[in-house]
Design goal:
Elements (H helix, E strand, L loop, with lengths): L17 H11 L4 E4 L6 H7 L6 E4 L3 H15 L3 E5 L3 H5 L1 H9 L4 E5 L12
Length: 124
Amino acid sequence: MSAATQAPPATATQSLSGAEVVLRALKDNGVEVIFGYPGGAVLPIYDAIFQQNAIRHILVRHEQAAVHAAEGYARSTGKVGVVLVTSGPGATNAVTGLVDALMDSIPVICLTGQVPTHLIGNDA
């Protein structure tokens, strides 16, 4: 490879939060819309969503509605439907829609939050 075609050396590293990495991965894979309902365990991702404008967020009133909306989006656009819900009841409320999407072979990704590792198993 000649010097003219080589990539320039990295001069500085960019520091990204985990939430920013998740959003970048979604964007790099063509995701334009996320359906969701915020909760404590996913607030860092929501902060990152609202600091960018490449991915649009559609707020729903219940996690189950988020999954069904993402499923409808996937059916009508041919793209993957993406859902963002919080941990605990937020995740379990999404199950019916996820099973429906699974049974109909509809591509849906559901991202859920989780309590900090040191709180797992402590009824947190």
